[in-house]
């Protein structure tokens, strides 16, 4: 379901578009440093598919290598995800 919606967080207003119903779910944050040694990367790969249940969604920028890897794995498992775009990545117009 494509829609737009304003959300208020910490006295600031943000625009959301896409399936904004995901914002009403329990949200789980995914953050990672850009530089991570090998073992934590393997642990993240093994655990990321279990991050979100049916009433949850994972929130991340999906910018770091570990976040990007988790994005691919979670997409294969049908995990609901919310991508936070950096201001410079937000398009001037919304996609159709």
Task: Looking at this protein, list some descriptive labels.
single chain, alpha/beta, 2 helices, 5 strands, globular
Name the overall outline.
globular
Mean pLDDT: 79
Distance between the termini: 12 Å
Percent in helix: 10-25%
Number of strands: 5
**How many DSSP helices?**
2
What does this structure look like?
The chain has helices at residues 38-47, 65-76; strands at residues 3-9, 12-18, 26-29, 56-60, 81-83. It has 96 residues and is of the alpha/beta class. It has a three-stranded parallel sheet, with helices on one face. The protein has a two-stranded antiparallel sheet with strand order 1-2. Strand 4 (56-60), helix 2 (65-76) and strand 5 form a beta-alpha-beta unit. The N and C termini lie close together (12 Å). The mean pLDDT is 79.
């Amino acid at each position: 379901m494509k829609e737009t919606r304003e959300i208020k967080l910490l006295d600031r207003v943000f625009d959301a578009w896409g399936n904004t119903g995901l914002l009403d779910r329990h949200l789980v944050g995914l953050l990672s440093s850009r530089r991570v040694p090998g073992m934590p990367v393997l642990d993240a790969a093994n655990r990321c598919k279990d991050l979100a249940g049916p009433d949850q969604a994972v929130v991340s920028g999906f910018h770091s290598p570990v976040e990007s890897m988790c994005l691919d794995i979670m997409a294969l498992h049908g995990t609901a995800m919310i991508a936070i775009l950096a201001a410079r990545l937000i398009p001037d117009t919304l996609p159709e």
